[in-house]
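Q: Given only this backbone (264 positions), what sequence would you predict?
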């Protein structure tokens, strides 16, 4: 059952959300084809609840802090692991491989969750385990928030130790790889961390369009064909996209992402 006054109140808030500079009562009335008296009455109630703010000098209405507080409480209640878990399970089932969720702490990769196929007897990382950023697909994805100079600064402090003969140990080559990863929205680890293993990772964004984590899957190079490799890349990108949406991310907003501060 539709409650007309509630429906109209939402129409007003949605209209104001599309106008950062705000609208007058008359403009809202004209846009929604509602009587000015009705719009004024609803605006009054929304103002009392702090969902609408009125500029007294211009008589223009904008969304208020009450609306921000309400949405912030919801957004802060979202837990990455909780939101990601069903998608990790689906990706693991689709690929038949182990799937990882990771974030960055002190310029290191930290595994925060994983999902393994039921019949997989191989032993993988423990939750909380740390790995280098420079030689893992997850790590390269997490590095995409940094500028070239920030990456150089990180690796003036941290060592790029070789894990295999294929590990990138030159910072300029790493920067090239990170820039490539940023452009295509996925990263790879081609035997750079473990010989014989290939790994793909994609970024996860939150409601601020900030990269907050990454998801990955890996497999033995002898276990799948080239066409399966391309299919897995698309599956992991789609998995990351779905998790991002559940974290409040609005697509096509990644240009707003800001680099975190480099800690000395």
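A: Predicted residues:
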């Amino acid at each position: 059952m539709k409650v007309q006054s509630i429906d109209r109140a939402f129409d007003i808030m949605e209209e104001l959300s599309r106008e950062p500079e705000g609208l007058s009562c008359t403009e809202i009335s004209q846009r929604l084809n509602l009587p000015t008296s009705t719009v004024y009455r609803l605006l009054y109630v929304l103002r009392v609840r702090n969902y609408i703010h009125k500029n007294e000098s211009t008589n223009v209405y904008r969304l208020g802090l009450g609306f921000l507080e309400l949405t912030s409480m919801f957004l802060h209640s979202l837990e990455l692991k909780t939101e990601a878990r069903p998608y990790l399970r689906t990706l693991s089932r689709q690929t038949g491989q182990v799937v990882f969720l990771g974030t960055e702490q002190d310029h290191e990769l930290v595994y925060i969750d994983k999902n393994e196929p039921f019949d997989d007897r191989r032993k993988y990382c423990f939750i909380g385990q740390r790995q280098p950023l420079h030689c893992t697909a997850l790590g390269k994805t997490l590095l995409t928030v940094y500028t070239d100079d920030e990456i150089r600064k990180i690796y003036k402090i941290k060592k790029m130790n070789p894990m295999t003969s294929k590990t990138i140990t030159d910072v300029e080559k790493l920067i090239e790889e990170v820039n490539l990863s940023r452009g295509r929205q996925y990263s790879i680890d081609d035997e750079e961390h473990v010989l014989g293993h290939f790994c793909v990772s994609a970024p996860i964004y939150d409601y601020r369009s900030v990269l907050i984590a990454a998801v990955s899957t890996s497999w033995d190079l002898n276990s799948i064909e080239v066409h399966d490799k391309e299919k897995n890349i698309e599956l992991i990108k789609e998995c990351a996209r779905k998790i991002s949406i559940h974290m409040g991310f609005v697509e096509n907003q990644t240009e707003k992402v800001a680099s975190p501060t480099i800690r000395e």
